[in-house]
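Good day; I would like, with your permission, to put a structural problem before you. What I wish to show you is a protein chain and, alongside it, a tokenised description of its three-dimensional fold. I would ask you to consider whether the tokens describe a fold that such a sequence might reasonably adopt. You will find the record immediately after this paragraph:
***
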Amino acid sequence: MDLTSLTLLVEIIDAGNLSQAARKLKMTRANVSYHLNQLEKSVGVQLVRRTTRRVEPTEVGLRLVEHGRNIQNEVLAARETITTLGQGLQGRVGLSVPSGYGQMVMSDWLIEFKRLYPGIVLDVLFENRADNLRDEVDVAIRVMPEPPPALVARELGPVRYLACASRGFAEQHGLPASMEQLRSTPLITSGVVGKQLRLRAYRGEERQEVMLEPTLISEHFPFLRQGILAGLGLGLVPDYVVMDAIASGEVLTTLDDWRLSIFGTRMYLLYMPNRYQTHAVRTCIDFLLDKARAPNPAPDAAHD
């Protein structure tokens, strides 16, 4: 048994099937299957269970994967030490951030991080995908009810949704005073392709649920903000989208005694549990956690 064989086994288990592992290793599927068979012959036991779609490690296979991953991480750490010896902090960090929060809040953080660590390459994706992390993404920021159990999740804090509208809209149309009145109000909010939007609202022990039929939908929160300021309807958006406009009195809020939830009320920093983290990635994670948890007093909401 050699390091190459152990690495191959780790990649197969991480990928979930031979075809994915072959693509990542730039090998043919037949070649990956051959090397796996040779490894199983050399140790004399079955290491994976094959199905038509997935491979899963046996008990012995799982133990070998753990050893292989530890060795792989030690090799990567040694390479990083040699590469960065005598140099400033270097490396690449792949970040996936929500389109709205990423642009409206995190952009300033990431620019500050880049100024502090000019040798680190930041590769930032603005997207709202909720799937597992891909190879090019080291860290993802997501708003969701519960984090995926397969990922390490570090909570960044609550996400507070507001029902809000421009002062002009409120003066012309009034603001809904109950959850039921949302059904007859033009709504501005984000959406998910192929899914009907469901607003959940909590007040003490009371819980209500309203199916939404927005008139302006977008995953791009700066555009939703423009629609709210233009008086096109009542916005159901996270507080960071309009906090400055609320402070200036340009935007008013309603239903403030309700806790609103559309996509979840918690924000998480996510990363793979077994993927090796470079010094650059660890530094970026610590930086983002510090920024998200720093005191950020919010201005009092204006009311109609």
User: Anything to note?
Assistant: The mean pLDDT is 84.
